[in-house]
Design goal:
single chain; 11 helices; five-stranded antiparallel sheet; 434 Repressor (Amino-terminal Domain); 42% helix
Length: 264
């Protein structure tokens, strides 16, 4: 347990002194825990992992390594205890229409989506839509959304940066493998200078080529604020809002079944 704790502390770039102050224990005691000379209580394991914002899944691993039973459940999303969560997700997804919205898990696997997501998927290879669908792979794959993304270099850099931050936070090896895969996709030559911000933009839009024009979206990310379950803590709701009136009108028309979605 001490070695795992030290790995998390170093990953968070926190000194023993700073962590001991945050957890209200002595630096000497923390040092003894990390070297295995002292066995921490269950409460101390939880306090130290909370101070370092260790994900709930990994807090369970720390508890097991220290000889304690896991504290945080990991209920399947389809299970009965998760009914209020599913209901909340359904309300959010339906309420966001006619704009697209999706729910993904820690691995970026698509769990739920509203009907408006179809706007984004024109021309995508059906093979990439076979479950389980990884939304990052779907977005950046040459047979996925990538050919339709007008600002692919910017959007690709944005998604890879998000994934890199998630890897730093979770130390998930599967996500590292996904990052390597996505980094090998075409498009590196289009990546912008990180210091060069798009002129006149307040946030980076997703610019999607569509029949008759271009759709422009701003994205937001939401999570459950007080999760006590591993599954709930790893759910992410990504919503896309129209970035201009032409896109808003196109989404309304698509939802009404009047015409294919086209931007101005």
């Amino acid at each position: 347990m001490g070695a795992l704790l030290r790995q998390w502390r170093e990953r968070r770039r926190i000194s023993q002194l700073d962590l001991s102050i945050a957890a209200d224990i002595s630096a000497r005691h923390l040092s003894f825990v990390e070297t295995g000379r002292s066995r921490p209580s269950r409460q101390m394991v939880l306090r130290l992992s909370a101070c370092m914002e260790v994900p709930l899944r990994e807090r369970n691993h720390l508890l097991l390594a220290a000889g304690y039973a896991p504290v945080y459940s990991a209920q399947p999303l389809e299970g009965r205890p998760m009914a209020p969560v599913r209901e909340a997700l359904g309300v959010i997804l339906k309420g966001h229409e006619p704009s697209p919205a999706v729910v993904v898990d820690r691995a970026w696997t698509l769990l739920e989506a509203n009907a408006s997501v179809a706007v984004l998927l024109e021309g995508v290879d059906p093979e990439l839509l076979e479950p389980p669908v990884n939304v990052l792979r779907l977005s950046l794959h040459p047979r996925g959304l990538a050919p339709n993304i007008a600002n692919l270099g910017e959007w690709r850099a944005h998604l890879l940066h998000r994934l890199h931050r998630q890897i730093d936070h979770t130390a998930d090896e599967d996500l590292r493998a996904l990052h390597r895969e996505l980094s090998d996709y075409p498009g590196t030559e289009d990546e912008p200078d990180p210091e060069a911000l798009p002129a006149g933009e307040v946030a980076l839009p997703l610019r999607l080529r569509a029949r008759g024009g271009e759709l422009r979206f701003l994205s937001t990310v939401a999570t459950f604020g007080t999760p006590l379950d591993v599954t709930v803590s790893e759910l992410v709701i990504e919503s896309f809002f129209p970035a201009d009136e032409a896109t808003a009108a196109a989404l309304r028309a698509f939802a009404a079944g009047l015409a294919p979605a086209t931007g101005g």
